[in-house]
Structure formats: C-alpha cells, structure tokens
Specification:
Pfam families: Lipase_GDSL_2. GO terms for molecular function: phosphatidylcholine lysophospholipase activity. Keywords: Signal. This protein is of the alpha/beta class. Helix content is about 50%, strand content about 10%. Helix 8 packs across helix 9. The radius of gyration is 47 Å and the shape is globular. The N and C termini lie far apart (about 145 Å).
C-alpha cells in the first residue's frame, strides 16, 4: 500500500512539467526550425550614372524646305561673278603692306562678305607712277622715264598682251592717282588734262557706264610740307570736279589719311604709306556705293 501511495504522489508531481513540454513543443511555429537566412550585403562603388540621352529622330525635310534649299542653290549658281579693276600708284597697289591688305583686295573681301561673288581683282598700279605713266601702261605704250613695274604689278602687265586691257570690261573700276604728279611739280592744269584722259579710259572698261567707276581722292600722310598739302587739295579739287562732270562716284579719303599724323597705327613703318587699318577705313567709305552700283547692274 505504501508503495502504491508513493508512486501516485510522484506521478502527481511530475506530470504537469511533462505535459507542458509536450504542449509547448507542439505549439511552436514551424518557422522556428527553418534554415536561417544569410544576410548578404553588396558594397558597390558610388558611380554617378546618367541614362543615355535620347537623340531626337531627324526630321524629314518638308517639300517646302527642299524647294527653298534648291532655290537658294540655284540662285547661288546663277549669281554673276564680278570683276574689279583698280588703277593708280603706290597707294593703290598698297606699298609697304601685303597685297591682301591694300584697299583693292579689302574692297573685294568686304563685297564678298555682303554676298557678292568676286571673281578677280586686277590691279594696274606702281609706286611712283604719274597719271601719264598709268595711261601709257594701260595703252601698252613705252615711256622713256616710266618707272619699271615690280612685283605683282609687273607680272600682271607682262602677262597682258599689248593693248589688251583696253578690250576687257570690268564690273567696277576704281582710280586713285596724282601724288607723284604733285611731288614732281606738274601743274594743276596738266594734271587735270591727264586725269580726264584716264577717266575716258576707265569708261571704256565699264562699257561706258559711269555709275560703276569710282575715283578716290589723293591721300596726304601729314608728313609732307604745308605747300605740298595745299597742292594736294588743289589736285583733289580738280579730280573731284572731273568725276562729277562725268557722273562718276567720288570717295574722299584725304581727311582720314591726315589722321596718320597723330595716329601711328594708320601709317606703315616708312611713315608715308597707309597701314592695313587705314585702307580698311577707306573701303568703309565706298563699299556701300559699290554694292549699290553692282546691284543696279543686275
């Protein structure tokens, strides 16, 4: 009896913990026995990333655009090619500057900038030429005391058959001469007669169209004696009147040239001839009138 009683007491004491363990084990969620998940971290360098820019699809040209482009191309192909003849002395040829820096070439450049096609610029000029020297060169005649042409003026004159220049016409003719006439003491009356002969020659080179001829006044560097400056003014009065009488355009560059006496940038190293800067100022006085004359010619 005692043994049975002792066994009963032990079962009473031990039964609740065993039952609790069984219940707890039964009630645990299934995740408690799942395989542990490994946390993985990727350490990527910081790179600024921009998505590729979407290029716009090229627009297909419209019929109007194609027509306009074709018209522009045709107009350019049909644009007349203009020619220029520059006549004179050392101021015309651009003594002491590069050929591209003289006023004839700068005039051509500014006309091109306005959309005018310039096919060529012929320059018949030489430092030291008087009006009669230039006339003789144009007519292919020899002058006993005529200065021998040098450089590109010589090449041009040597390549031209005698008298051929009188047979060729130009779209624009520009004339500037008289400084050497004045320095050698030629009278104003004789200068006027010689200059008028040159104007007649110039007219033959434009087909008689005076509107496409331009006379540039004689410059004065400001370094010459006062009496020479006075003589230059007298010569310019003559060539201006002759130009007006023949319906020829006149470009007064003398005032600009005299600024060289106080502005060294307008004069070359020799102290006499204009710099490229001064020539550019001369061209600015005439380019609009030359453009208008060419437009009127059609």
């Amino acid at each position: 009896m005692a043994a049975i009683l002792l066994l009963t007491v032990l079962m009473y004491i031990l039964a609740p913990p065993l039952m609790g363990y069984s219940q707890q084990r039964h009630l645990l969620p299934s995740t408690a026995f799942a395989a542990p998940q490994r946390a993985i971290a990727y350490a990527l360098p910081h790179v600024a990333y921009a998505p590729p820019r979407q290029q716009p699809l090229p627009l297909r040209p419209t019929r109007q655009a194609i027509t306009a482009a074709a018209a522009t191309s045709d107009a350019a192909a049909q644009a007349p090619i203009r020619t220029i003849l520059a006549l004179g002395d050392g101021y015309t040829i651009g003594e002491s500057v590069l050929p591209s820096e003289g006023w004839p070439m700068q005039l051509a450049d500014q006309l091109r900038a306005k959309g005018i096609a310039i096919g060529g610029v012929d320059v018949v000029a030489q430092a030291g030429w008087r009006t009669d020297d230039l006339q003789a060169a144009l007519e292919g005649k020899a002058q006993g005391d005529q200065p021998k042409p040098q450089g590109w003026a010589a090449a041009f004159l040597m390549a031209a058959p005698k008298g051929s220049l009188l047979q060729k016409e130009y779209d624009v003719v520009a004339l500037q001469i008289g400084g050497s006439d004045r320095m050698e003491g030629k009278s104003v009356e004789q200068y006027g007669a010689d200059f008028e002969a040159l104007l007649k020659l110039a007219l033959t080179k434009t087909g008689g169209d005076a509107s496409r001829i331009f006379v540039l006044s004689i410059p004065d560097s400001g370094a010459a004696p006062a009496d020479v400056a006075t003589g230059i003014d007298a010569y310019n009065s003559v060539n201006k009147d002759l130009a007006a009488a023949n319906g020829i355009g006149y470009v007064d560059i003398t005032a600009i040239s005299r600024k060289g006496a106080t502005d060294a940038s307008l004069i070359t190293w020799d102290g006499v001839y204009p710099s490229a800067k001064m020539y550019r100022e001369w061209v600015s006085l005439m380019v609009d009138d030359v453009t208008a004359a060419l437009d009127a010619k059609g």
